From TrEMBL:
Listed name of the protein: NAD(P)/FAD-dependent oxidoreductase
Entry keyword set: FAD, Flavoprotein, Monooxygenase, Oxidoreductase
Organism superkingdom: Bacteria
Entry's family note: Belongs to the FAD-binding monooxygenase family.
Cofactor: FAD
InterPro entries noted in UniProt: FAD-binding_MO, FAD/NAD-bd_sf, Flavin_mOase-like
Organism: Lentzea indica
Gene3D superfamilies, A to Z: FAD/NAD(P)-binding domain (3.50.50.60)
Amino acid sequence: MTTTTEHLDVLIIGAGLSGIGAAHHIQSALPGRTYAVLEARDTIGGTWDLFRYPGVRSDSDMHTLGYRFRPWTQAKAIADGPSILRYIRDTAAEAGIDQHIRFGHRTVRAEWSTSDACWTVEVVHRDEKVRLTAGFLYVCTGYYHYDAGHVPHFPGIERFGGTVVHPQHWPEDLDHAGKKVIVIGSGATAVTLVPAMAASAAHVTMLQRSPTYVMPLPSEDVVAKMLRRLLGTRHAYPIVRWKNVAVGTLIYQLSRRRPHIVKSVLRKAAIRRLPPGYDIDMHFKPRYQPWDQRLCFAPDGDLFATINQGRVSVVTDRVAEFTEAGLRLESGAELEADVVVTATGLRLLALGGIRLAVDGREVELPKTMAYKGMMLSGLPNLAFTVGYTNASWTLKADLVSEYVVRLLRYLDTHGYDQCTPTNDDPAVTEQPLLDFQAGYVLRSIDEFPKAGSRPPWRLGMSYAHDLLKLRHGPIDDGAMRFSRRPVPHKALRQQA
């Protein structure tokens, strides 16, 4: 049985970092609008509640991963997962956003009706179907598949006598103290897990197919601490935020234009922190250029410190098969383990897996094109959030929310009911939405909308550029088409 419950001006999907931020912007700037947040799980936090493996933390500094409207005040700039989760929940509670969240509501389908100028959204709640309508749909689901991570096929895994766990589904009762641990992977999750588990494990081995770039960073921002002391939190926060944006942009641009300089800096940093004679070329010299994949940050160089202390080993090889006692590698070497962690990556899911339709026509996402990296060609009154791959997610999320507010105000001011990005420029060619070489992106990118070769269809990865475009650029730019709801024939006869 399906029941229609209510109509809302704005329906936000997802109560994670993006969704709570979006709700704050909508509520603050447009207090007369009705809105609700639909969350498939039973709690606030999204990624920061889902991932509970040892040492889980941000891979961006919290002065940029934090919201623009709510300063991060803790000492650590590279923060642990529980602290970030508390920050998101406190943000929701202080603004009363938590009162607008419908937990256990999984959005499965949404269809736009031009004649009604609204979305009809189908939701599953406690095995019952619920239908809501909304004037604007704002999808803040991120792009991770929450149900399962990526695990390649490992021959013989069924005969392993120990415990195998994926970081996305970390069991609360897993005790690795005093045990031999192998972490398969070399990305951000592995770089986080390895030193955290080494604190109590007998030994941890990071088994990687190929090296990744690891950059040691201070866990505390000394400039932020000094400015907070001199200026106070409210005045210091935007300065530190822009300082970190500038530093991050500099590192990224230098990586793209002068990669040899960045590689040299990272190599020297590793040499300084690792034992004399350590095989840097084998274990910390990637085959790709910096920022072809996301840089991994090691707060206070913790990964290097645990290697230097003999608590962690890095092995660069491939898994041939699992054995009863551990792993056999393609080189013939064998590694013993009590616990194997498959930090082998994530799965992507476009727009939370929501099926979309417009006036009875099912939408094929790969045939749409992303407008300004936040709306889709041919889909009226719908926005989504995809953060930066080369900077903090929230920098882009905040800008998208500001743009949505501007767009809704523009509709009100001009008496429009709908806005639809329309690509009718034959010179625009298709490109991948995420121009990023990470494995988790390459595995799923064909299921996502496309980006275009020219603005406003090209996905920007520059915060400064996007700030000008989304916060101050024109709303009516020629590619966004505005219209009013068709007047019913009965109303026309009455007017006549």
